[in-house]
Each structure stands twice: as C-alpha cells, then as structure tokens.
Amino acid sequence: MEDLMNELRNLKDFTQKCLTEIKNDIHGIFSSISSIEHKLNSVENRVVELENEQQILRDDIVEQNIRVDSLFSTIESVENKIEKAEQYSRRENLIFYGISESHSESPQAPK
C-alpha cells in the first residue's frame, strides 16, 4: 500500500510538473501571439500609409498630365503663331521685277 501511495505522489508531482510546463508554454505562445499581433498592426498601419501616399502620387500624376497637356497645347499655339509670322514675313519680302509698285494698292487686291 505504501508503494501505491508513493506511486500516486510521484504521479501527482509529475502531473503538476507537466501542467506547469504546459502553462509556461501557453504563456509563451500567448506572448508570441501578442507580439505577432503588434507587428501585424504595424504592418497594417504602414500599408494604409503607403496606400495614402500612393493615392497622393496618383493625384499628382493626373495633375502633371493635365499640365503637360496644357503645355503641349500652348506649344502648338506658339508654333502656329510663329508659322503665321514667318509666312507673313515671307509674303511682305517678295520682290517682283518688271512690275511697278504702287503704294495705294493692298497686297490682297493686286491690279
């Protein structure tokens, strides 16, 4: 009977030791999960920040595209004005030999 009691005490001690180890393991797991949750929250916050920055950059790109289109339009307008000025300059610099020039005539209605 004494052996049985010793065996039961040993079993009880072993069980308590195992339970203590399991509690420590569970505590470690909970600590790891808490750390992972914290890191996950940090990553989620960073993703939100990056998405916001990305949206700002997209908006900037749209604005820059509008500005570039406006500049191209302005360049085209200036090129047209330059072309007209060059044509007018060439027209006014024509010299016709053998035809007398009259100051009363206009270039649009020659006689």
Characterise the protein shown here:
The chain is mainly α and 111 residues long. It is 82% helix and 0% strand. It contains 1 helix and no strands. The N and C termini lie far apart (146 Å). The relative contact order is 0.03. The mean pLDDT is 89. This is t-SNARE coiled-coil homology domain-containing protein.
Q: Helices and strands in order, then pairings?
A:
Layout: H1 2-92
Low-pLDDT ranges: none
Distance from N terminus to C terminus (CA atoms, Å) equals 146 Å
Order of helices and strands: H
Q: Can you count the helices?
A: 1
State the secondary-structure class.
Answer: mainly alpha
Q: Which value, in Å, is the CA radius of gyration?
A: 46 Å
Largest sheet: none
Q: Find the count of extended strands (DSSP E, 2+ residues).
A: 0
Percent helix: over 70%
Round the mean pLDDT to the nearest integer and report it.
89
Strand content: under 5%
Coarse morphology? rod-shaped
List keywords for this structure.
111 residues; mainly alpha; 82% helix; rod-shaped; coiled coil; t-SNARE coiled-coil homology domain-containing protein
Summarize the structure.
Keywords: Coiled coil. With about 110 residues, the chain is an all-alpha fold.
